[in-house]
Amino acid sequence: MNNIFENIDTICFTGPRPAKLYGYTKKEEYQKIVDQLKEVIRGFAKFGIKNYITGGAQGFDQLAFWAVNSLKKEYDIQNIVYIPFQGQERLWKKTGMFGQKDYQKMLALADQVINVSETQNLDMTKEKAEIDAMLVRNEMMVDNSQMVIGFFPFSKDYKKEKGGTASCLRYADGKIHVCQIDPKTFEIQMVYCKGGEIS
User: Fold this and answer.
1) What is the tally of structural domains in the chain?
2) Structural domain of residue 154, as residue ranges?
3) How many CB atoms lie within 10 A of CB 59?
4) 15-65 pLDDT per residue, tens
5) Vertex 80, ends 45 and 94: CA angle to 5°?
6) What is the pLDDT of residues 109-129, one digit of tens each?
7) Do 130 and 85 contact (CB within 8 A), yes or no?
8) CB burial class (10 A; 0-12, 13-18, 19+) of residue 151?
9) What is the pTM of this model?
């Protein structure tokens, strides 16, 4: 297992929005996710894995960012945010959980912010351009990582399910290692990818 982690320097995250978690008010439940994530990230950081990419979206993405951020005092790690386009937060509430204020604070604290629509020269005037930018964002995160941590139930098959998290895990499957975390039990399931072979 050590040899596998020696070849990893970047991990990205994918997971659901608040509607599929605990909504916008249950801080205690979300703190539990952050605390559990910290333990997972701490385990990888001890192997020297330095870079952690999140997508900036409401829900799991932001929880993962704050988990990484809280460990920066313990480890020499980088907290990187890939935003799909400028202003993805414009329809969010100004304040409160996952609001615009927290989003701006997150971007200010990030070690690096990459605007995917700009770096990939996406035409944001097209119909459904924002949805497309989010999908490209997910693919770009995977392309620049060696492992994805996915917050996705073991009871469901991400190869068949709809939604952004399942789509991201499908894209990663066979390309990079997949660390799947079950949202209910927080058990971990690893799918290793080495030279195109999954084990």
Assistant:
1) 1
2) 2-198
3) 24
4) 999 999 999 999 999 999 999 999 999 999 999 999 999 999 999 999 999
5) 125
6) 999 999 999 999 999 999 999
7) yes
8) buried
9) 0.93
